């Protein structure tokens, strides 16, 4: 009888462990995300509100097109992994202009470190590619179409 109780306890413990792991892995995904970041001390334009549902559900854009963790040049992020804010890695606001005689940063160096470059490469490049693929599609490609005028 003692072995049976121990086996039941063990099975129940494993089941609870898997239940908590599943709940922990499932993250609450908001319908809208305000693209705000602490790396910008002051915003010159109004903040972009990204419709997560529209991009992911309606337009069928895979999560890993925006969310990423790079290892050996490959995005290894997969659905269910932790989602960090962009400024966890892109820790500076905007790349400074190179002073005379100094080398300019490459586009890739800017994207890796600077939030402005990373966001604009990811979002603007995607919007422009979508517009090019289907010119009739109502894809915003001008600044004011994503950054509404400040009130």
Task: Describe the structure using short key phrases.
single chain; 151 residues; mainly alpha; Cytochrome C3; two-stranded antiparallel sheet; two-stranded antiparallel ribbon; 40% helix; globular
Written overview of the protein:
The chain contains five helices and four strands; from the N terminus they run αββαββααα. The protein has one domain (30-146): Cytochrome C3 (Alpha-Beta Complex). The protein is globular, with a radius of gyration of 22 Å. The protein is 40% helix and 7% strand. It is mostly helical and 151 residues long. α3 (107-113) packs across α4. β3 and β4 form a beta hairpin.
Summed up, what is this model?
With 151 residues, the protein is mainly alpha-helical. The chain has helices spanning 2-25, 52-58, 107-113, 115-133, 143-146, and strands at 32-34, 49-51, 70-71, 74-75.
